[in-house]
Amino acid sequence: MRYFIWALVCCTLIACGEEAVNNKTAEAVREKKETILPVKEMIDSALAGSWELSALPRSPTPFSKLYPRQRPVLFIQPELKLISGSTGCNRFSATITTVGNQLRFTDFTRSTLTCVGDAETIFLTAWEKSEKYFFRNNDELVWGTDAVAWMIFKRR
């Protein structure tokens, strides 16, 4: 009988110890899940609407010579995470997300018309170098980096 009581006490202590370890492990896992949350990809609703390119500050060619007729246009639809428009020659579309003021594009596609001059090449180079955006004067959207403004758009 004495051995039976000792065995029962030992089993109880072992079970309680395992439960405490399991509770601590479960708590640690819960804390880890709470601290490692995925970044929710979204798009700044202030970008919504239609934008027309008004300047390419780093272009070696004057803007009026690059686009004597049709300028590039952006159509941004935040609810669909979609950006589409024209390079001035070809149509394009892509998925757009923003994190803070950073721009992220995926699934970029465009038509493949042969374009006269180097306007499209300059536009696409500026697009590729643009990592961030900010607003100026409430109706201007500037794309670039921290140090360089590559593209300036006006709200249409």
Detailed description of the structure:
- The structure is a single chain.
- It is built from three helices and eight strands.
- The model has no long low-confidence stretch (mean pLDDT 84).
- With 156 residues, the protein is α+β, with helices and mostly antiparallel strands.
- An eight-stranded antiparallel β-sheet has the order 5-4-3-2-1-8-7-6, covered by helices on one side.
- The chain folds into two domains: 1-37; 45-155, Lipocalin, CATH 2.40.128.270.
- The longest helix is centred in the first third of the chain and has 34 residues, at 2-35.
- The radius of gyration is 28 Å and the shape is globular.
What tags apply to this protein structure?
2 domains; 156 residues; eight-stranded antiparallel β-sheet; Lipocalin; alpha+beta
Q: How many angstroms does the end-to-end distance come to? A: 91 Å
Low-confidence stretches: none
Largest sheet: 8 strands, antiparallel
The H-and-E topology, N to C, reads as HEHEEEEHEEE
Sequence of strands across the biggest β-sheet? 5-4-3-2-1-8-7-6
Q: Which CATH architecture of the largest domain?
A: Beta Barrel
CATH class of the largest domain: Mainly Beta
Helix content: 25-40%
